[in-house]
Amino acid sequence: MSLKLGDVVRARVSGNELTVKKKLGEGTQGVAYLVEAPDGQEVVKWYFRTQATADQREAIERLVNRGKPRGGGGERFVWPKDIVTSSGDTATFGYLMPVIDTSRFVELNAIQAKRHPQPNIPELCRISYNIADSFSDLHLSGYCYRDISLGNLLFDPRTGEVLICDNDNVGIDRQSESAILGTPEFMAPEVIRGEETPSTITDQHSLAVLLFNLWMWHHPFHGIKEYQIRSWDIPAKTKIYGTEPVFIFDPEDASNRLPDEPGYITALKRWKICPPSLKKAFTTSFTRGLREPGSRVTEGNWKAIFSSLHDNRLKCGGCGAINLWSEGIHMMQCWNCDEGIAIPMRIVINNGMTRSALLVDEGRNVFVRHVRPTEEQRSKEPIGEIVRNPNDPSMLGLRNLTELPWIVSFGDDVQKEVPPGRSAPLNRSMQLNLGSGASASIEH
Ligand SMILES: [Zn+2]
């Protein structure tokens, strides 16, 4: 039974009485209501009786007891806070969660329908980073999400903040049973084919589809094969997503290219201006990653890609639009006005394991993550800042923001110390030892 306005339900752990104020929406599993709790308004998701199984209740209890994923990424999950029951209807139950500010947080389809402005490119990088960071923290906490889809993602297009809702299908990776397998468009091919159940590895496929949708506004397998299907039924979806998935931009398999039709133009336009590092990750996800789940792009890979793109944004001198530089771009044309954009020289940081490049521009920072990508907690700490030489404003230098000296040389055997607070001049012959086995040089 659904609840009526004015009904009183009870939260199990807190014992609080909650008065139903308003119906907010209805999904496939239940109805969401705004309720008045002693310390303000909250939301109750109330299950349909058919969905209110003992397994579902046990799953929600486990989420309430274990709590949301740890870390900053965990804070973005709109996590179940308590089980809710009604003395008038013991055949079902619900759970309590915080209210979402829907004036700020929107779904992608609200943006595609032009009800909200599009996020700018730096914010799109931030949204994407935050999504990957959240699923990284979820997986590190031993959970798998199992139903990653656009319908569960809300973001603030102006700030890039993200919320992930509908967490009632989250489970313990490779332990708990799942009532649902996911949303077909986002499900990994092996789950569609019935060979595997949802796990962190299949979440990685869903995450790649989600990110592709965010950037391309299109599904990675919706090409000529989907276009030619007359009846969009279960066998059709099984074919497109499960038994014959082919990436629309697969460099080797051209069997599922975009048809020359108006509904497919946006994807082509957006792909053309997609930075190479991102194209490469999508291509890996939807070619090798389909056949070899172990080689899927990880949450950490996505985080590195989006933070690097965010670092390396460039403003077009002609129209002011923000463009994204990534390694592999040697000539740059503004995506908005086609004008050529000069690419500044780059600081290339090598730590023996990873290599990252940062455009040289006054005010940009080198961060801990450039030097030691594994130091998650301190990754956003700046260790260096690009500054202008006060005595020669045509010269830029990298100021040492650490507490230890760096060692610099300029193409000869002469080594000089760069003490904390001082700067190393950034010129083509510079070789900078940043400590911890990391070095920096200039690429032009
Ligand atoms: Zn431009």
Automatic annotation (TrEMBL):
It comes from the Bacteria. InterPro entries: Kinase-like_dom_sf, Prot_kinase_dom. PANTHER family: RIBOSOMAL PROTEIN S6 KINASE (PTHR24351). Pfam families: Pkinase (PF00069). The lineage of its organism: Bacteria, Pseudomonadati, Verrucomicrobiota, Verrucomicrobiia, Verrucomicrobiales. It comes from Haloferula chungangensis. Residues 18-306 form the Protein kinase domain. SUPFAM superfamilies: Protein kinase-like (PK-like). One of its GO terms (molecular function) is kinase activity. This is Protein kinase. Keywords: ATP-binding, Kinase, Nucleotide-binding, Serine/threonine-protein kinase, Transferase.
